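Minutes, project check-in
Item: structure for the 280-residue chain
Input as provided by the requester:
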Amino acid sequence: METQVDLTAALQWHIDAGCDECIDDAPINRFELIDAAPTMPAPQQSQVQPTVASSAPGSPGISRGTKVDPRDVDNNQQVRSAMMLSAQAKNIDELGQVLDSFDGCILKKTATNLVLSDGPENAKLMLVGEAPGAEEDRQGLPFVGPSGQLMNAVLGSVGIAREEVMFSNTVFWRPPGNRTPTAQEAAVCKPFIDRLIEIVDPKILICVGAPSAHTLLGETQGISRLRGKWFSFQTPNLSHPIDAIALFHPAYLLRTPIKKRDVWNDIRMIKRKLDEHITS
């Protein structure tokens, strides 16, 4: 016979796995919530011209061209739009207003709330995670679920209060089922997270988890190889580089407690660097 503890543990297991919604009475076709990718119209037969290679000695032939995926074209347009819109924001409130009106990220269609940031605009320490989870989506705030509570404890272990830190993510809407954001989704949101970092201008930027480190630092190695090292974060609008470091995501620590020792070493290194900035 299952006990209350067994049932609670089973429920928590489903939550950790991303199963955060009950089965509805009526079926929902969630594919209808996502607009189909635009397709490029096929050229008329009369418009197709044969490709002729040059017969002149030493002259290059005419390129047949590269097939273009219309989804890439559309995504590039959305990235350019995001760059122009994000540049207009002078503070976090304005950035939030811009994101509220921005429809270039498909995640917005299935999320409940925009999850932009939480913390003081002049924070010396800034954490950027991967994406909002279920609790973040409900509250509209980053790092407020179980992972956020563990992150608060990690910071508190070296005397850093949550209220002193700016929290955000590389994407601002929860991916369905807590999946990892796609490269296209991260690319569309990157101008906005870059602008948020420029506005806050922290002394130290912590990239929480591999997707965050890959997006912000341009690195491709796994998080185990990236952690414990200092990097520089820079944008054209920053007058100086920002010290940046990668950290295991607290969600990973919940599944792999043995890695807490590495995080303890890393957070102490971060605290020492932060103290150096404050006293210099």
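Outcome recorded: Strands lie at 125-129, 165-169, 204-208, 230-233, 242-247.
No further action items on this chain.
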